[in-house]
Write a structure and sequence with these properties.
Number of strands: 0
Largest sheet: none
Number of domains: 2
Order of helices and strands: HHHHHHHH
Distance between the termini: 67 Å
CATH superfamily of the largest domain: RNA polymerase sigma factor, region 2, helix turn helix motif
Strand content: under 5%
CATH topology of the largest domain: Rna Polymerase Sigma Factor, Chain: A
């Protein structure tokens, strides 16, 4: 029996066990298709879908009009897909920048080698840089006040600290890649 969005959401809010499965069954393909429209790989589409549905679970009680659940999820999926696509471009740009450091004329460094170098350089940074960069680039939607509290730093210093940490990471990655080319 097909259930209305209002019914499914009402059952979710009452804590019915099967209701969340019904919610996911109803909306996961919709969210996934929005992510796919950004030409993301399937695994990123899966991640976007999971992130959006988890956010929906957390904020379902805030939804004022259950009939607009699909619109709300589409908007959330667009935002999350854009964030994932932007981070993917940043990673590709970063990998490309570091590949050129190791082989300026030849660019033969693979993405895997560059990512390994990035991980090694990140590990060398130590805290607070390592913790800050990992949190900023791995969390779905980092909430700066919570992040600042968790890292023991003022909210206003997150942006400037992030910039300095990225510069340190670039320098360490450059050193890693140069050492590999020798």
């Amino acid at each position: 029996m097909a259930r209305s969005a209002e019914d499914i959401i009402d059952r979710c809010l009452r804590g019915e066990a099967r209701a969340w499965d019904d919610f996911v069954d109803r909306y996961q393909r919709l969210v996934w298709s929005v992510a796919r429209s950004y030409r993301l790989p399937a695994e990123d589409c899966d991640d976007v879908t999971q992130a959006v549905l988890v956010a929906a679970l957390r904020h379902l009680a805030d939804l004022r009009d259950p009939a607009k659940a699909a619109s709300w999820l589409i908007t959330s999926a667009h935002r999350e897909s854009w964030r994932v696509a932007r981070n993917r471009r940043r990673t590709v740009d970063l990998v490309g920048d570091f590949a050129s450091v190791s082989e300026p004329d030849d660019r033969r460094a693979t993405d895997l080698e560059a990512m390994h170098s990035m991980r090694a350089a990140l590990d060398e940074l130590g805290d607070p840089c390592r913790a800050l960069l990992v949190a900023l680039f791995s969390e779905v939607d980092p909430h700066y006040p919570d992040l600042a509290k968790r890292l023991g730093m003022p909210v206003g210093s997150i942006g400037p600290t992030r910039g300095r940490c990225i510069e340190k990471l670039r320098a360490r990655m450059g050193a890693h890649l140069e050492a590999k080319s020798e």
